[in-house]
Design goal:
Strand content of chain A: 15-25%
Largest interface: A-B, 19 and 19 residues
Family (chains A, B): Belongs to the serine/threonine dehydratase family.
EC number (chains A, B): 5.1.1.-
Largest sheet of chain A: 6 strands, mixed
Radius of gyration of chain A: 18 Å
Strand order of the largest sheet of chain A: 1-2-10-7-8-9
Helix content of chain A: 40-55%
Order of helices and strands of chain A: HEHEHHEHEHEHEHEHEHHEHHHE
Enzyme class (chains A, B): isomerase
Oligomer: homodimer
Organism (chains A, B): Sinorhizobium fredii (strain NBRC 101917 / NGR234)
CATH class of the largest domain in chain A: Alpha Beta
Pfam families (chains A, B): PALP
Shape of chain A: globular
């Protein structure tokens, strides 16, 4: 199967297509955190995005790019994270069906979030084989369009609109850093910046305990983790061919942080910036604070990927 | 002693004076919360203000309005809340001394916050008599200017800049609601709106368990609570003559909420709006949700007063 690599014009089309359905999120700064880091950090706040995560961008681009005929059959995905919620949001905006296959063991809050936007949750057993079987059944019955959480050119073109906005909002950035799990946001960042501002260095930030992208990057081929465990639960998934293409070709380096560093960075942001964001979103700041030389005096864009966190189970408690 | 009532020109002067030292904070909205409330709510986010609270406005106005001669002797206050931190911030901006008298039993985080901006903490025993004695000594020794947390025309003129900004940022408001403790923010709101947009109704929101302003408003004279206890710890202090003047003359009504309603509203805002704010700041939304008829279909400004909360001791845990 030939892989379609999305282009700058896909990003521009995506931005026009999704503008009515997403927020142009604000960029926040903290003089306290700047003085700690010895750099100027510009936080692009996708935690304020519709449905609480940047994934509303890619999901909206996929949903609103469908023909009326395909759209009538709906969309489907398997995700117990933000992609499921965001696909449900986007489908609700278009008024079409959305089915999300999720392990029956997934948190109730995640199921409720999908349903809150009008989507349907179909439960599977917590295994890859069950998920694939149940998902195949859903698609066979409904004819729904599969929207992969990240390994999909429509999704990556949608995520790319985030960095496109960021460079419209902040002049003279030297670098942009984003967390990496499956690589959707980082691929979008690569797609936007390599075309629009190729002098900006792109860093990916990853938990040490789920460092498959780091090891893949060093090895030169995709390595998947075996059951990684990290507080940054949005970052456990592996790279796939399309995201690997962007990471391999456009990322300057991948930096990692320990669980404690991630939690400390998260708490620091909550405390000083007064924003609620996910553990995954704290990984970039954690890596900046442990690599100060690399960023000293630089103007750095930091993608805050999402704000959907269980307020009853905060990681420092 | 004749009471000086600040005027519109004091507010305009204050705004010019403090602009270099404060943020023009953003106004956020949530379609989910709007649909719950049946109204359009515009949250003025003073949790993003310098030092994490609206009190940076009044403190900055007092500090930057001093003559050079007085400023050289510094400023002083007694406050274990945001006013102490914000006065320390403002004094640090001007490069003058600041002393905050605080009970030795005050939370370590509050002492650290004052010191973090360069202020000096002087401890007293946790009693009014000790506080007054220690404070008198500080002022006698240093000649520092006393800046009261709210019963001070300079402070009220400074707080008034918040609602002045809000009506510049949002057109056509029908009402503005703010929490009430000592009444500094509400008085500032009254001062700004009675002069600039007198058709806007002004509501104050108060915890049931510290409802001295509510009872004062109904009785027609100041009634102080006897040791009130509420999760909204910024709202335990009583009205004073200057704030009572504004409340009595310009407030449409005072609404109250239970502890549970306040905590639920706080958690709702954190969860849906992804912002960190204090329990005190949740009281307005709590009262809106229990008085839906009053606000149905209206455009309502909601002052989010501050974001300084102990992340290790959240009230829903």
């Amino acid at each position: 199967m030939t892989m379609y690599i999305p282009t700058l014009s896909d990003v521009i089309d995506a931005h026009e297509r999704i503008k009515p359905h997403i927020h142009r999120t604000p960029v926040l700064t903290s003089s306290f955190i700047n003085s700690l880091a010895g750099a100027e950090l510009y936080f692009k706040c996708e935690n304020f995005q519709k449905a609480g995560a940047f994934k509303a961008r890619g999901a909206s681009n996929a949903v609103f790019g469908l023909s009326d005929k395909q759209a009538a059959k709906g969309v489907a995905t398997h995700s117990s994270g933000n992609h499921g919620t965001c696909l449900s949001y986007a489908a609700g905006q278009r008024g079409i069906p959305c089915t999300v296959v999720m392990p029956r063991t997934a948190p109730q809050a995640k199921k409720d979030a999908v349903r809150g936007y009008g989507g349907k949750v179909v439960e599977c057993e917590p295994s890859t084989s069950s998920r694939e079987a149940v998902f195949a059944e859903v698609v066979a019955e409904s004819g729904a369009e599969f929207v992969h959480p990240y390994n999909d050119p429509r999704v990556i073109a949608g995520q790319a609109t985030c960095s496109k906005e960021l460079i419209e909002q902040v002049d003279g950035l030297d670098a942009v850093i984003a967390p990496i799990g499956g690589g959707g946001m980082v691929s979008g960042t690569c797609l936007a910046l390599s075309n629009l501002a190729s002098h900006i260095a792109i860093y990916a930030a990853e938990p040490e305990q789920a460092d498959d992208a780091y090891r893949s990057f060093k090895a030169g081929h995709i390595i998947a983790d075996d059951a990684p465990d990290t507080v940054a639960d949005g970052l456990k998934v592996p790279l796939k061919d399309l995201t690997w293409h962007f990471v391999k070709n456009h990322v300057t380096d991948i930096l990692t942080a320990s669980e404690e560093e991630i939690i400390d960075a998260m708490k620091l942001i909550w405390k000083r910036m007064k924003i609620v964001m996910e553990p995954s979103s704290a990984v970039p700041l954690a890596t900046i604070l442990k690599n100060k030389d690399l960023f000293a005096g630089k103007r750095v864009g930091v993608i805050v990927t999402g704000g959907n966190v269980d307020l009853d189970k905060l990681p420092w408690q």
